[in-house]
Specification:
alpha/beta, binds NADP nicotinamide-adenine-dinucleotide phosphate, single chain, Rossmann fold, seven-stranded parallel β-sheet
């Protein structure tokens, strides 16, 4: 029997972060849940209690606010005296051309996804380094390795997360007991797509093949102990990255049409606005995104493309 570990998760009230919290709870760990919306965190905490968590602690905070992150980490360490696994999963998305996405929305995507991870590292590192033990896992994305149409803020934020991961490893080589890991999912069925800020002409959806958040959560907790198992989740990530790096002239030509069919929902009504980027919309959070079958989604998109072509001719 190992003692329960202290697992702190950002973005714990939805999707991948919620799945991480639930898995940690199932194995009997102490879970510390961080996101902006308190009620959604309370819902996850109640589930974690039922699943067998040693304890739950709800610490509402905005990861883009360094002071709030510092207070949440201090509360967790005050309660438990240590941190064993810290997972940075809080994230938001904005769709649309750079010129169409308001500066405040663009900046907040970067502040949440990238600077939020920096803020977290700033406050948990002294604890992990003092212990010379524990793990910090950053959730990146395959989009942190490539470019895709009309997702500039998300792309630069996730390239930054990947850079941060390597930088943390370089900077902390004097503490061999502290582990740093990086997990880059492809498409995952979570609410993030419906929560996204939208300033373009279509709605996003997870690209095929779509994973369940529980699969990513298992990888996240596995790499916390075995960081060398981190990195890409799914063979399709390797194929896409190969195309981006090895044949950029083909990639750049094909990514637009392919992305619209595979990673967008062309039939869904477009509701323009900031989504959950500037403030929590916790009522829309949940473990799953309810995106349905990805292949059927591609079929519906192809039908929509044909319909628009025929309509355009008529
Ligand atoms: N789903 C995918 O296909 C996919 C693919 C690759 C990578 N990822 C990455 O996986 C991570 C989790 O995404 P997800 O799909 O699980 O998204 P999700 O279901 O929308 O969950 C996002 C979580 O982040 C929290 N959050 C958002 N902004 C925050 C802020 N400023 N401060 C604190 N918490 C904040 C949200 O709660 P509040 O709004 O209440 O704060 C929520 O708990 C993200 O980093 C995302 O980029 C996702």
């Amino acid at each position: 029997m190992t003692a329960p570990r202290v697992v702190l998760v950002t973005g714990a009230s939805s999707g991948i972060g919620e799945a991480v919290a639930r898995e940690a709870a199932s194995r009997g760990d102490h879970v510390v849940l961080l996101a902006r919306g308190r009620e959604a965190l309370e819902r996850v905490a109640a589930d974690c209690d039922c699943l067998g968590a040693a304890s739950t602690l709800v610490t509402p905070a905005d990861v883009s606010d360094d002071t709030q992150v510092g207070q949440a980490v201090a509360e967790a360490v005050g309660r438990h005296g240590r941190l064993d696994v810290v997972v940075s999963s809080a994230g938001v998305v904005a769709y649309g051309p750079i010129a169409a996405v308001p500066a405040g929305v663009f900046d907040q995507v970067v502040s949440t996804n990238l600077l939020g991870a920096v803020n977290l590292a700033r406050h948990v590192l002294p604890v992990l380094r003092d212990q010379d033990d524990g793990a910090l896992v950053l959730v990146g994305s395959v989009i942190g390795h490539i470019g895709v149409p009309d997702m500039a803020a998300y792309v630069v934020s996730k390239w930054g997360v990947r850079g941060l991961f390597r930088q943390l490893r370089v900077d902390n080589r004097d503490r061999p007991g502290v582990r740093f890991a990086y997990v880059a999912p492809g498409g995952v069925d979570t609410p993030i797509y419906r929560q996204a800020a939208t300033y373009g002409d279509s709605v996003g959806r997870p690209p095929f093949p779509v994973d369940r958040p529980e699969k990513i959560a298992s990888r996240v907790l596995a790499v916390a102990d075995a960081p060398w198992r981190g990195g890409q989740v799914g063979l399709s990530n390797d194929v896409i990255r190969f195309g981006f790096n090895a044949v950029p002239w083909i990639y750049d030509r094909l990514v637009g049409p392919l992305f619209s069919v595979v990673a967008q929902d062309l039939a869904a009504p477009v509701v323009r606005g900031p989504g959950n980027v500037l403030a929590s919309r916790q009522d829309h959070n949940g473990l799953r995104g309810g995106q349905g079958n990805a292949l059927l989604g591609i079929g519906a998109n192809l039908a929509e493309v044909v319909r628009r072509r025929v309509g355009g001719r008529g």
